[in-house]
Amino acid sequence: MSDTYAKLVGAPGPAQQLAKKLGLPRPARLRRTDPTSVDRPLTPGPVLVLSDDASTADADTVAEGLLAWDLDVHRDARLPDHARWGAVVLVLTELPHPAALSAPAMQLGSVLRSLAPGARVVSLSRRAPGPDATTNLAPAVAAARAGVDGFVRSVAKELRNGATANGVVLADDVDVRAPSVRGALRFFLSARSAFVDGQLLAVVSGAGSEPADWARPLTGVAAVVTGAARGIGAEVVRVLARDGAHVLGVDVPAAGESLTSVMNEVHGVALQLDITAEDAAARILDVARSRYGHLDVVVHNAGILRDKLLANMSAEKFDDLTAVNVTAPLRMNETFARPGVLGSASTAPRVISLASTSGIAGNRGQTNYANAKAGLIGMTRALAGSLTDAGGTVNAVAPGFIETEMTASVPPVPRQVMRWASSLQQGGRPVDVAEAIAFLASPQAGGIDGQVLRVCGQLQTGQ
Ligand code: NAD
């Protein structure tokens, strides 16, 4: 479950030299969270805040907010000799026309060679009209906003040394000071977003709140994670617990031993349960309520693979996969997504599903899997807004290629191709997906609802 090639070329030596000569990918070591000192430092160097002329006032506000996080904030691209930028924040919230991007784009271009390894470029812009939306926006404004998406995704493809570019996209009535704008900005700046690249995340409302302690934003929260015995699920358990949550882990009885050992690590509760059982949600609720008094966060992580080309696919393989990967979360949400079931006086509901880039782009041999994962995205969008009254949200995370036992079953050549097909030229780790889930579970993500956040290193497939 590790990328031997990346290890070989990751350290100076003959393998690295040979890879360089042959023009083969040399994936960078990514900047990930240090479990002993989460978010310290937040960025690997000073932060440059740039904007177009019309967005200067918002840029001032954003810069003040960054100072409050003790960052070394600059508005001028001149740096002392040998210093390297830890991040560049592009404030483009009032961009009037695509041509107005030119000045901040040129300024960004001029500092790209002086970014620190693992640096971040983060844009703040406003939402362009979606495919189904009617809009009152002037065509030039709509073009400017849509243009930022293309720009950021392209910058992400040009960055090197584990640096990433992502964007926060604000709905029209959302202020740059809104908790989820600051929450998303902080997530993208931090090491928590190591494998999120080329993504634009929408903040749809001013809901949510900033945590009292950014290192433990889930204090007092009770969460359940399905498929918790190994892989991504086990890491979600660890990261939610690190961030302060009480965690209940669910997995099939056959995985009981490893489930117990994962849950013991975090002093959590292990529940052996097949999520396809009719009463799965009721049993989870019973255990959570008797142990913690309430249940707040549900992470639909359990999933299986039954890959076959459609011409060779049996109904059994198709149906087994559908039952676990999409029918079970749909059924459980009939309970969990009903108002009044999740949350408490001091904690807000969160439902987070594990989709997949296969559900966005399609994948050969995965018609059954892509149907289920795209189905979870449809479910997420349909449930958006359903928990708003209680401050709740329903979102999905779509991992790309993550190094787990599930993907270790992929044959070696396509496995290496999948790693190299991302802008970061490597597979992600379970912790990368877990960090995104923990962010969406947090109070500072309360204004993010009905969204799909890809954790894929900007895999060159799909949107
Ligand atoms: P994994 O196979 O390593 O772990 C999945 C866990 O779910 C296992 O512990 C398994 O026992 C459990 N599970 C399966 N069926 C269950 C059931 N009926 N009831 C309860 N538990 C059940 O998988 P992973 O790679 O950690 O993936 C976790 C999730 O992320 C899955 O939904 C997967 O589809 C999704 N995902 C993974 C990747 C990747 O690259 N690994 C990419 C995209 C999406």
From TrEMBL:
SMART domains named among the record's database cross-references: PKS_KR
Region (Disordered): 16-45
Signal peptide: none
Ranges for domain Ketoreductase: 221-400
UniProt xrefs under Pfam families: adh_short_C2
GO biological process, one term: monocarboxylic acid metabolic process
Family membership: Belongs to the short-chain dehydrogenases/reductases (SDR) family.
The name this protein goes by in its record: 3-oxoacyl-[acyl-carrier protein] reductase
Lineage, broadest ranks: Bacteria, Bacillati, Actinomycetota, Actinomycetes, Micrococcales
